[in-house]
Automatic annotation (TrEMBL):
Descriptive protein name: Cytosolic beta-glucosidase
Pfam families: Glyco_hydro_1 (PF00232)
Gene: Lctl
GO MF annotation terms: beta-glucosidase activity; galactosylceramidase activity; glucosylceramidase activity
Membrane listed as a keyword: yes
Entry's EC annotation: 3.2.1.21, 3.2.1.45, 3.2.1.46
Gene3D superfamilies registered for this protein in UniProt: Glycosidases
PROSITE patterns noted in UniProt: GLYCOSYL_HYDROL_F1_1, GLYCOSYL_HYDROL_F1_2
Membrane-spanning ranges: 511-532
Keywords: Glycosidase, Hydrolase, Membrane, Transmembrane, Transmembrane helix
Reaction(s) catalysed by this chain's protein: beta-D-glucosyl-(1<->1)-N-octadecanoylsphing-4-enine + H2O = N-octadecanoylsphing-4-enine + D-glucose; a beta-D-glucosyl-(1<->1')-N-acylsphing-4-enine + H2O = an N-acylsphing-4-enine + D-glucose; a beta-D-galactosyl-(1<->1')-N-acylsphing-4-enine + H2O = an N-acylsphing-4-enine + D-galactose; a beta-D-xylosyl-(1<->1')-N-acylsphing-4-enine + cholesterol = cholesteryl 3-beta-D-xyloside + an N-acylsphing-4-enine
Superkingdom of the organism of origin: Eukaryota
């Protein structure tokens, strides 16, 4: 049932985005190539072969986008820094890009001037391509020191003003999609070891950066360093079946626990070590495909997070499913489980993203129980649409945000230590291997228009009301928000239609008229030649 009430005073409301998905300017002002630049420039890797070369042109539209943040009345903005924009090869001793550093300085200053707190992620997937080519990226242990140098440069240049740092955003996707399935950059399919090895190096890198901040910067800068982990919730198909309950537990431990357990408890989850170890032995391997931490590393990694960022989008029902050991084992078959969905769950956008708000409360309570009730910031939560025509009256996003935010309010009443919420995302943007076909934005972008104008969807108006009221005061007021939000999008639709017509006319002017003019000249020349021949 829906719970009416307000969040504690000082609860932080914000929105987020990431560098590669929004900035564009992929080769401008001294920026080096990232693995996503290389990946998207290969045919067949991304839907319709789209790229983030220009994305939302966010590199040139900082002031415009900060106006949108002011319009939303958010407390914070979660952004990421592009490693190759400030360090083109990824190696500090080789080259620094002052223009890139200036860009982020200007962005951070503009946010603070407008009373918006920057929450900065050091890594949202755009590894410098040079490090991938030279060393194999996150397969190589040398990344630990290269990333630590980069992080320390960011602390040095921006840490006097940035007080909330995220080392990695959704490292699960970096490891699994980048080094096992190959769906994401760098597009490698390294069998049963690639993802585990990449994750192992990422966890050790995170710990090194936390210790660097702790020993060198914390006393002077008084900031916090955490990590942002994205996880679904796994619910047993039959809650009375021990095998289903165990399968649901594995679902969470292989997803969230893979990274959270070492950081909060000092090692990989026992169930993960047992299952991967057993499957590795059945394959005849001499040791587990899941790497191990030494005793010294366990101590070094444990406790290296001042807060836990949580990204959450959806839920699955889970049941036991055995995969024969003769199959080529990998992350997905190591878990011995199957995922199901309830056909009654709303699926407003892509087929993977079902709206199941109650799963969020359960996930938050799981974190409270498993990891000693850490300080939590929700770093990503939102829903996308896949329809190609503009969808400004996004009723489904309003219902999604209302439901999921309400479950956070219930979790707070359960005693979960959540201090902030970040809606994902500010703008429609480049959505990785899906290109521009999925749109998560509160603001619609017309990518066909060279100016890439931003238009508020109905959810902008609704989210603003939640922020202003700091929650859901009473049924009548909340219902009124819904009505006003839906009214607001009708007006915006008219503006968008008018602008689209103008854009179409401009295209006609720019392309069709010069073409017609050229044809007329050619026809005149041909006629003149015929005339002269006849005369002679």
């Amino acid at each position: 049932s829906f719970y009416y009430g307000t969040f504690p005073a000082g609860f932080l409301w914000g929105v987020g985005s990431s560098a590669y998905q929004t900035e564009g300017a992929w080769d401008k002002d001294g920026k080096g190539p990232s693995i996503w630049d290389a990946f998207t420039h290969q045919k067949g890797k991304v839907f319709r072969n789209e790229t983030g070369d220009s994305a939302c042109d966010g590199y040139y539209r900082v002031k415009d986008d900060i106006q949108l943040l002011k319009e939303l009345k958010v407390n914070h903005y979660l952004l990421s820094i592009s490693w190759p924009r400030i360090m083109p090869t990824g190696i500090k001793t080789e080259q620094l890009n002052e223009k890139g550093i200036q860009f982020y300085n200007d962005t951070i200053n503009s946010l603070l001037e407008n009373n918006i707190t920057p929450i900065v992620s050091l890594y949202h997937w755009d590894l410098p391509q040079v490090l991938q080519e030279k060393y194999g990226g996150w397969q190589n242990i040398s990344m630990i020191n290269y990333f630590n140098d980069y992080a320390n440069l960011c602390f040095e240049k921006f840490g006097d003003r940035v007080k909330h740092w995220i080392t990695f955003s959704n490292p699960w996707a970096v490891a699994e999609n980048g080094y096992e399935t190959g769906e994401h950059a760098p597009g490698l399919k390294l069998g049963g070891c690639g993802a585990y090895k990449a994750a192992h190096h990422i966890i050790k890198t995170h710990a090194k950066v936390w210790h660097s901040y702790n020993s060198t910067w914390r006393r002077e800068q008084q900031g916090m360093v955490g990590i942002s982990l994205t996880s679904g919730w796994g619910e047993p198909v039959d809650p009375h079946s021990q095998t289903d309950r165990d399968a649901a537990e594995r679902y969470i431990q292989f997803h969230l626990g893979w990274f959270a357990n070492p950081i909060y408890r000092g090692d990989y989850p026992e169930v993960m070590k047992n299952y991967v170890g057993r499957k590795s032995a059945q394959q005849g391997l001499g040791r587990s495909r899941l790497p191990t931490f030494s005793l010294q590393e366990k101590t070094y990694i444990k406790g290296t997070s001042d807060f836990l960022g949580i990204g959450h989008f959806t839920t699955r029902y889970v049941l036991q499913k055995n995969f024969p050991f003769l199959q080529v084992s990998g992350y997905h078959t190591d878990r011995d489980l199957a995922e199901l969905v309830d056909p009654k769950w709303p699926v407003p956008g892509p087929k993977w993203l079902y709206s199941v708000p109650w799963g969020f409360r359960r996930l938050l309570n799981f974190i409270k129980t498993q990891y000693g009730n850490p300080l939590i910031y929700v770093t990503e939560n939102g829903v996308s649409e896949t329809l190609q025509c503009p969808q400004l009256c996004d009723e489904w996003r309003i219902q999604y945000l209302k439901g999921y935010i309400n479950e956070i309010l219930k979790a707070l009443n359960d005693g979960v230590n959540v201090k902030g919420y970040t809606a994902w995302s500010l703008l429609d943007k480049f959505e990785w291997n899906k290109g521009f076909s999925e749109r998560f934005g509160l603001y619609h972008i017309d990518f066909k228009n060279k100016n890439k104008p931003r238009y508020p969807k109905a959810s902008v108006d609704y989210y603003k009301k939640i922020i202003s009221a700091n929650g859901f005061p009473n049924p009548r007021e909340v219902e009124n928000w819904h009505r006003k939000a839906m009214d607001s999008c009708s007006t915006t639709h008219q503006h968008l239609a008018a602008d689209s017509l103008i854009t179409h006319m401009e295209m006609v002017t720019e392309i069709v008229l010069p073409t017609v003019f050229t044809l007329c000249i050619l026809i005149c020349i041909v006629l003149l030649i015929f005339y002269l021949r006849n005369q002679s």
